[in-house]
Design brief:
The chain is an alpha/beta fold and 262 residues long. Helices cover 50% and strands 16% of the residues.
Length: 262
């Protein structure tokens, strides 16, 4: 069992909360914290009792992105070492399309570089008015390689190009206009608003939620005609499920449904 040193992990009311916990460093994505994040997210996703995963940061920052000390180490590494180090970062950002438990970013403060990538990877994002987002990599001579697919999907090609080439930092409200976050609330309301959203998603059939994510990400990579065949198969799974029968019965009987995820 992995002992977490850079993150906090808790489970409560069908929700797993993963907190980046290096506040004195503004929660950078170090090699260790990246490994621990991957482990924690996969752990939560494998637990059938968990319906939603919240990602947030301890202290005043969500995540400052990559760690400068790690970047300095990379200057000394051989090509094979750099390849395997890069694969670890890739594993973290692949999780957004691999896990079938919805991810919610609770953006408590600055989320820059890789931090912006984490926010964009999450299916839902709630930000404090104190949050700031941006792709600042070019200021350090770096390129936002691994996070580019998620940010691009969130904001579109033209805005992605502007964000990347200007390295500008955006306020929470500007990030909302860019579609990087869905809701902006005061710092004191952030936790309540995040949990309210998490409980809303957790109240739905877990099977239907998983199928929704599966359909969304898999059809994105498919030819349009083939996607309809794939969706027909998923529709069959849905219509034969116990959850769909329970949902229909509960609606007709005017009661709350009791989901079992089958």
């Amino acid at each position: 069992m992995m002992v977490y040193e850079t993150i906090l992990y808790e489970e409560k009311e069908k929700v797993a909360k993963v907190t980046l916990n290096l506040p004195e460093m503004r929660n950078p994505l170090t090699e260790k914290s990246t490994r621990e994040l991957v482990h924690a997210i996969r752990k939560a996703d494998r637990n059938p009792e968990i319906r939603v995963i919240i990602l947030t940061g301890a202290g005043k920052a969500f995540s400052a992105g990559g760690n400068l000390n790690d970047f300095k180490k990379n200057l000394e590494r051989t090509a094979p070492d750099l390849y395997f180090e890069g694969k670890e970062s890739t594993e973290l950002f692949k999780l957004g399309a691999e896990v079938t438990t919805p991810l919610i970013a609770s953006v408590n403060g600055p989320a820059l570089g890789g931090g912006t990538g984490l926010v964009a990877m999450c299916q839902l994002a709630v930000a404090s008015t104190e949050a700031k987002l941006g792709l600042t990599e070019l200021k350090l001579g770096l390129v936002p390689f691994v996070i580019m697919p998620w940010v691009r999907r969130a904001v579109g090609d033209r805005k992605m190009m502007e964000m990347m080439l200007t390295a500008e930092i955006y306020s929470a409200e500007q990030a909302k206009e860019l579609n990087l976050v869905h809701r902006v609330v005061s710092p004191v309301d952030l936790e309540n608003e995040t949990w309210k959203l998490a409980k809303q998603v957790a109240s739905f059939s877990p099977l239907a939620v998983k199928l929704s994510l599966d359909a969304f990400y898999n059809t994105e990579q498919m030819d349009l005609i083939k996607s309809f065949d794939y969706l027909t198969t998923l529709r069959l799974v849905s219509f034969m499920s116990e959850d769909l029968k329970e949902g229909a019965s509960a609606f007709l009987e005017k009661r709350m449904p009791s989901w079992n995820g089958k």
